[in-house]
Structure formats: C-alpha cells, structure tokens
Design goal:
Layout lengths: L1 H23 L18 E4 L2 E4 L9 H4 E3 L1 H6 L2 H22 L6 E6 L6 E5 L5 E6 L1 H6 L5 H12 L16 H15 L19 H14 L4 H11 L5 H7 L3 H10 L6
Parallel strand pairs: 3-4, 4-6
Antiparallel strand pairs: 1-2, 5-6
Helix pairs in contact: 4-6, 6-7, 7-8, 9-10
C-alpha cells in the first residue's frame, strides 16, 4: 500500500510538470484561459436600513485544497478561521486560472510571528505551497485578508528563475513578483485595495502597489493581455527586459515614459 501511494504521488507530480511545460510551449497566439468570475458582495447600512446584496455561490475549495495547521485554528476565533476559509474559496480558482493555467496546488496555512503580515514558501513537495501568517497582525487587521490573496498569487507564480524572490537580484528582482502579486490582489480580491496615484518620484522598480498600478495601466491602455503574457513569459524563461519589448514592441523605459506622460487614469 505504501509503495502504491508513493507511485501515485510521483505520477501526479509528473502530470503537473507536464501541464506546465505544455503551456510554456503552446503557441503565443493561443487564447488566454477563461476567468472564473468572482463577484463581490457587501452589506450596506443607511441609517436604520440594512440592504444585503445576495451572496454569490461558490465551491468550497478550502475543503479540497486548503489545510490549516493546528496553530492557525488555535490562534484565531472561529469566526476568523471561517473567514480565512471563505476568502480562500472565493478567490483561489480565479487566481489559478489567470496565473497558473488553472492548476491548483495544495495550500497550507501556518503561523510565523515575523515582521510582515504573511509570506509564501515551498511546501513538503512540488504539489504543495505554504503560507505563513503573522497572527498578531491579523488579530489587529481582520479586514486585511487581501494580504493572503497577494500570497496566493505568489503561490501561483512558480517563475522560471528562482532569483525573482531575491530583492535587487541581477535578473530583475522582487519588484516583478511583488508587482504581479499586488496586481492579482487588486484585480481579483473581494475587499477594497487601493493603488497609489502616479507621482514623478516613482519608478517602475518601486515594487508592490506602484508596480501593480503600472502593470494595470499597461493592461488597460497598451495591451489588454499584457499581464497574462508577462506572467507566462516569466514562467517559461528567465527574465530579461526584452520581455516588455516582445509583448508590446516598446522597452520598459519607453512604456514608463508613456505612463508618466498620460493622465494616469485606471478603471
């Protein structure tokens, strides 16, 4: 029985690798994967009147793909644990389709009282990703579950060059991955998340929200498939600045200049 389980694991890992390799070699003209629609819902209070917008139905993906370690369950009240589960179920399929050809890894939530709100790291095998949360942060900021959508986007990236995770690396650095992750959070998370207005002292390498806003502007004003192509390019080959030229016909500096000289409006 043990040998059979080991064989099943390796066959599954091989299949996953084959899927990713297939998409990396697919034609550049192939259509982008269809997105899973994610509909926000909210409760609005006007004086004594409460208007509830119908909650969308969604599959309980957390029961299939999410494991919360015991330390997570012990760190938060039951309502927070439920919120973590629901947030995961609402955004995970959409992130997987947009950033990872629909392939969904097993995700493990754990606790690590470090300085940031959360971070993503590798799991026990190629089919698993782990996200460590700062429990103190989330106890104080219960409405910031979008930070986990950012980390779930990281889990879907799996870029070709491992240097993407290192700040200021020679091959592009973390501004790429963090900008894409904040793009994912802004575009697909259900909670409100703002991107900063353009200012002359910004650079596209500023990372996080600044880079995300630049990528969003490119999607809306240069090529509506820019981010999808950019994400796929990073999966298939080591980053060079030529990737911007390949997608848009312009260098990243030319694109940033266009952005700087525009009205900077994003929708």
């Amino acid at each position: 029985m043990k040998k059979a389980k080991i064989l099943l694991f390796f066959l599954t890992a091989l299949l996953l690798t084959g899927v990713l390799v297939f998409f990396c070699h697919a034609s550049a003209d192939s259509s982008a994967p269809a997105l899973t629609e994610t509909i926000p819902f909210e409760v609005t209070t006007a004086e004594d009147t409460v208007v509830t917008v119908e909650k969308p139905e969604y599959e309980d993906l957390s029961s299939r793909f999410l494991t919360m370690e015991k330390v997570v369950v012990e760190a938060f009240p039951e309502s927070m644990v439920t919120a973590l589960s629901n947030n995961f179920s609402r955004v995970y399929a959409t992130l997987a389709e947009y950033f990872n050809y629909g392939v969904m890894y097993d995700i493990v939530y754990t606790i690590d009282e470090q300085t940031s709100a959360a971070y993503q790291t590798g799991g026990r095998n190629d089919l698993e990703k782990k996200i460590a949360m700062n429990a103190s942060y989330f106890r104080t900021n219960r409405n910031d579950l979008g930070a986990l959508t950012h980390e779930l986007t990281h889990a879907m990236q799996s870029y070709k060059d491992s240097k993407y995770g290192a700040a200021n690396s020679a091959n592009g650095g973390s501004w790429l991955t963090e900008g894409v992750a904040d793009f994912g959070r802004y575009t697909f998370d259900l909670s409100s998340f703002s991107l900063p207005n353009y200012s002359a002292d910004q650079k596209y390498t500023d990372s996080y929200r600044v880079t995300a806003r630049f990528f969003l502007w490119l999607n809306q004003n240069v090529d509506s498939t820019f981010l999808e192509q950019f994400n796929e390019g990073l999966k298939c080959e080591a980053y060079t600045a030529q990737l911007f030229v390949k997608i848009t016909g312009k260098t990243v500096d030319e694109l940033w200049q266009m952005y700087a000289e525009s009205d900077h409006v994003i929708r």
